[in-house]
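Incident review: delayed structure delivery

Summary: a single-chain prediction request sat in the queue longer than the usual turnaround. Root cause was a stuck worker, restarted by the on-call engineer. No data loss occurred. The affected request and its eventual output are reproduced below so the record is complete for anyone auditing the incident later.

Affected input:
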Amino acid sequence: MTKPAFLITIDTEGDNLWQNHQSISTENTRYLPRFQALCEKYGFKPVYLTNYEMAVDAEYVEFARDVIARGTGEVGMHLHAWNSPPLQALTDDDWRHKPYLIEYPRDLVRAKVDHMTKLLEDAFQTKMLSHRAGRWAFNEYYAELLLEYGYQVDCSVTPNVNWAFSPGDPQGQGGTDYRHFPAQAYFIDPSNIARAGHSSLLEVPMSIQLKHSAMMNAFKQGYDALRGKKRSPSALWLRPSGGNLENMKKVALRCLEQGHDYVEFMLHSSEFMPGGSPTFKTEQDIEQLYRDLDGLFSWLSERTQGLTLAEYYQRKVK
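Output delivered after worker restart:
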């Protein structure tokens, strides 16, 4: 019997983008080899979903080319619209507001996807097959472009999560509402990305489980609404947050019990660096992160098989 896949996705981007920047550093590149070595210890193959500032970082390019050459991981595309060429201001301060790509004019969306795809393929000398949208914002036009440029896999969908309350352009409608999207992998209907269709683009949603029952979530959201607050239902992700090993196991186990043929993990590359994120600020935080990662990977190594997104795609089309 084929084991479920373990898919490790790393949003590979500049240092601590949660802060407001006027320029972006990429020191976190130096912290990736340790994580890569941990993945290889368990036979897992991370997918480095790479954005602009990392794609032009020579040290990162050298690291990722080696991963590709040894067949121990994959590079895909990740696009932060506000600093990915060609640049054209959408708001009074795009670096502060971080607009979603789907908020830009269509011709500029196309130009940014074109530029990033060609930049990555030139830097890493391999076809880009996998993609995750910056800030998880995805729509039908974006899917159409991924199909046009030959991508096979998208992993932007976050089931049960509504990003409409997370603004990009202050004059916009916020991010994508994924509350009614499938939680398992499906080939996208390009006319409605929330449902399965017959395209060649495979959607691989993040492994996310609701923290509370539907009844409790309805109560909590009603209570928040009375207080004038709007937020997405509370959810648990297969994502480290510091000392949350048991919750990550719980998410993975629920997904497998529900019949999912994969579990999908995510983290940002900058979270491997002390001070590279709001969550892991100190060296002690990083050591806790690695204790959690080692515990999770050891547990999953008995239940899953490590695949890249492109390898998982091949499993689905056979």
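Verification: The first helix runs from residue 32 to 41.
Action items: add queue-age alerting; document worker restart procedure.
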